[in-house]
Amino acid sequence: MIIKLEKIRVQTRKSEELINITDEVERIVTSAGVQNGLVNVMTTHTSSGLLVTEGIPCLEEDILTHLARLFPENEDYHHRRYLDYDGRLGFNAPSHLKSVVGGISCSFPIENGKVVRGSRQTIYFVEYDGPLERTYMVQVLGT
Amino acid sequence: MIDFHTHPVLIREFVEKYPGYERMAREVFKIGNNFQPLETFFLQMDVAGVDKAVLLPVACARAQKMDISSNEQVAELCAKSPRFIGFASVDPLSKTAVRELEDAASGLGLRGLKLDPALQQFRPDDEKVFPVYEAAENLDLPVVIHTGMSWAPASALEEAHPLVLEKVIRRFAKLNFVLAHWGWPWVWEATALALKYDNCYLDTSCLYYDGPEEFFHFVFSKQIPTTVIERSLRNKVVFGSNYPRVEIKNMVAALKSLKLTEGCLEKIFRTNAERLLGRQAAGEGGRR
Questions:
Q1: What predicted TM-score, i.e. pTM, was given to this entire model?
Q2: In angstroms, rounded to a whole number, what is the distance separating the alpha carbons of residues A105 and B46?
Q3: B143 by DSSP, 3-state: which?
Q4: Which residues 59-98 of A are in CB contact (within 8 Å) with B?
């Protein structure tokens, strides 16, 4: 049984953006040497996300546009208050809620050393509160 | 655009380089966010549309056992990018304060003075402090001085009342003072000082509850009318975010959401800061 965990840093450059990390996940799976098993990918933050969809710009735009429609900036959020553990105001409730709805992780089976995914499935790290340097985790389990 | 109020307290490159930097951020400045590479600072400026940022240290080692950034750290960041405008801070009760300020200006190229009486534990109207004001005046350095509420645990509100500064503002009439955070919650008192004294300015870096837009709409339309800014203080206000306590982009959006004219916003976002920093904008006359 092989268990390998990698933490990958990614510098986001916009307030919100989708970053295709499919190649990076596949590279880590290949380097782990697992032939059959599972790969889990997860963001370590609560105002960013991990999601899987077809890798085309129009969908990337639609995801951000319609999540913004669901969680507008100027709504009545309880999170808009002083957070003593952070020493600052928390006014990024929309970012957190987009993360909740969009999801923070995904997993794929590994077969014969390769990630088994649909031909159109693309893995994205999603920034909802950037630009920031972020971290996501890739854990490979199997034999 | 120029952001006149930022603090370089979450620079990851400094965590390993300077022992105590992390403790300063967590315990003295008090901020819990992750340290970020310097690149994030520039990207935060980019998404906000800000060209340059004033970096503010606080020399509070006597009172708080460590400084909030040092003049040397600020100068180091300024050497990395012309987008940074470094200010110095000195302990006004130190016997070497004047020399340190002169060195910071001439040797390190720092272009203003930051003081925080509550955190540095001095009375701004104490005559022992006057040589520092005189030095700043001689060096033509603007003074950003903390007023009002601070989230720093050791900073007492009552020691940061803006009216404590009136005597000094009057006495040093050629020295420009920027009252940070608009003196909140004493916004009328801070406003009155800026209305009355030519050498008194205000920065917009106040956010103490709700979100930036909600807070600005209350403070700058209900606590004081927006028209005071538009009509009377348009030449006396500079934009400040207080990053990283708040992201610059959110404070830019909040200020833009007020019903101020483009001409007024241009002064707040740029030309007033340029004038304070010694770059007289073409066509700008006196302060009013």
A1: 0.93
A2: 29
A3: strand
A4: 73-74, 77, 80-83, 85-89, 91
In the Cβ-directed half-sphere of A116, how many Cα atoms lie within 13 Å? 10
B281 pLDDT band, cuts 50/70/90, is very low
Q: Mind listing the domains of chain A with CATH numbers? A: 2-142 (2.60.120.460)
Verify cis geometry, omega within 30 degrees of 0, for the bond prior to B92.
Answer: no
* Whole-angstrom distance, CA of residue A127 vs CA of residue B283: 43
Contact residues on chain A for B213, CB-CB shorter than 8 A: 73-74
- Reduce the DSSP state of residue A120 to 3 states and report it: coil
The answer to whether B86 and B6 have CB atoms below 8 angstroms apart is: no
Peptide bond into B185 cis (omega under 30): yes
B215, HSE (Cβ side, Cα atoms, 13 Å): 27
Give just the sign of the alpha carbon dihedral B214, A63, B245, B277.
negative
B207 lies within 8 A of chain A by CB = yes
pLDDT at A31: 97
Residues of B in Cβ contact (< 8 Å) with A132: 34, 36, 40
Burial B260-275 (b: 16+ CB within 10 A, else e): beeebbebbbbbbbbb
Mean pLDDT, to the nearest integer, of B256-261? 96
> Across the beta sheet with A105-111, what order do the strands follow?
A2-11, A133-142, A37-43, A105-111, A114-115
Q: Distance, in angstroms, between A21 CA and closest chain B CA?
A: 20
pLDDT in tens, B96-153: 999 999 999 999 999 999 999 999 999 999 999 999 999 999 999 999 999 999 988 8
- Within a 13 Å sphere around the CA of A77, how many CA atoms are in the beta-carbon half? 25
Beta strand B84-86 with B52-55: parallel, antiparallel or unpaired?
A: parallel
For chain A, the first-to-last Cα distance in angstroms comes to: 5
pLDDT surpasses 60 at B280: no
CB contact under 8 A, A88 and B151: yes
| Position B6, amino acid | T
Fold assignment, B2-276: TIM Barrel (3.20.20)
Domain boundaries, chain B: 2-276
The rounded mean pLDDT for chain B is 94
- B181 neighbourhood in chain A, CB within 8 Å: none
Mutate to test the interface with B, among A84, A133, A135, A136 (most CBs of B within 10 A): A133
Q: pLDDT by residue (tens digit) across A74-100?
A: 899 999 999 988 888 888 999 999 999
